[in-house]
Amino acid sequence: MTNPTQDSESELRAEGVRITRQRLAILHVLREATDHPRAEDILARARLQDQSVSQATVYRTLAVLEKAGTVLRNEFDGTGARFELADRTHHDHLIDLDTGAVIEFHSARIERLQAEIAAELGYDIEWHRLELYGRKTPD
Amino acid sequence: MTNPTQDSESELRAEGVRITRQRLAILHVLREATDHPRAEDILARARLQDQSVSQATVYRTLAVLEKAGTVLRNEFDGTGARFELADRTHHDHLIDLDTGAVIEFHSARIERLQAEIAAELGYDIEWHRLELYGRKTPD
DNA sequence: AGGTAAATGAGAATGCCTCTCAATCTTGAT
DNA sequence: ATCAAGATTGAGAGGCATTCTCATTTACCT
């Protein structure tokens, strides 16, 4: 009888995050997104569902959700943050320099090497960012 | 009879970059830096050598030097770019979340894995960004 | 239902960075 | 050395993403 949508809301409530109309609209946008939208895009899409959502609330909500571990913030180019739901398994990004397309990938070997390197330097990794920027290999 | 300082200036000149008093001051700052200074820091330090350097020139020069391959731009936190000379061998960064210290490291194995992964996805890597964020391992 | 602290909208404010433009340099050619 | 042509510069205005302020509204516990 549980569904993922209700689950994530309960989890948020359990963390002391109040569920408002606006936050539901923003969460909905993030759940439907297949890209990595910017705050601006999220605002536009959220307003389709709830006309009242403001820019300030989008930024505030994204900050709240990020702190709660529900969303991830990315900074691929220098033109502002891009967001995604943190509900799937961890992955890194490959950005196509020609099209701007963002491809997700994961490598357990790289993850392991990162931890090894950090350990050698006397550190525990809290999180990391790995982005590859490239172009399609010519045939 | 050549020295690295003169070399990099000749190289820049060869690329069509004019060597001005202000650019020399900025290059000097970057050569002396042991940290990863922000534009603001570079401006302050450059002015110690040449009072006339302006903020606009710092940004413009950093953009010119970046395009020329002389400096690297980093975005560790969301609070603005940090720069470093690109004269040493390639490296990635480990950022200490408690102190903000930036530790440089390099792993040929990770580099190789990155290339492999990109190749599997049909891409050639142009450049990449790998940052580890962590804390000192407790004893 | 009622009280209280949290969340919101609108717009002002901030911070980093880029642009504009007239004045001043760098440089290659003379 | 001198010159012309074009690049670079300083100062301040402008731009853009993001955050803040504050009066009003809302979620949520009891």
Provide a descriptive summary of the structure in words.
2 copies of one chain form a homodimer. Chain A is an alpha+beta fold. In chain A, strands 4-3-5 form a 3-stranded mixed beta sheet. In chain A, strands 1-2 form a two-stranded antiparallel sheet. Chain A is globular and about 45 Å long. The interface between A and B is medium-sized, with 33 and 33 residues. Chain A binds a DNA duplex (30 and 30 nucleotides) through helix 2 and helix 4.
Descriptive tags:
homodimer, 139 residues, alpha+beta, 5 strands, 22% strand, DNA-binding
Chain oligomer state: homodimer
Q: Secondary-structure element order of chain A, as H and E?
A: HHHHEEEEHE
Q: Pairing-aware structural class of the strands and helices of chain A?
A: alpha+beta
Q: List low-confidence stretches of chain A.
A: none
Query: Main sheet of chain A: which strands, in order across?
Result: 4-3-5
Number of helices of chain A: 5
Kindly, what is the distance between the CA atoms of the first and last residues of chain A, rounded to a whole number of angstroms?
A: 50 Å
Shape of chain A: globular
**Largest two-chain interface:** A-B, 33 and 33 residues
Please state roughly what percent of the residues of chain A sit in beta strands, choosing from under 5%, 5-15%, 15-25%, 25-35%, 35-45% or over 45%: 15-25%
C-alpha Rg of chain A (nearest Å): 17 Å
Sketch the major β-sheet of chain A: 3 strands, mixed
Helix content of chain A: 40-55%
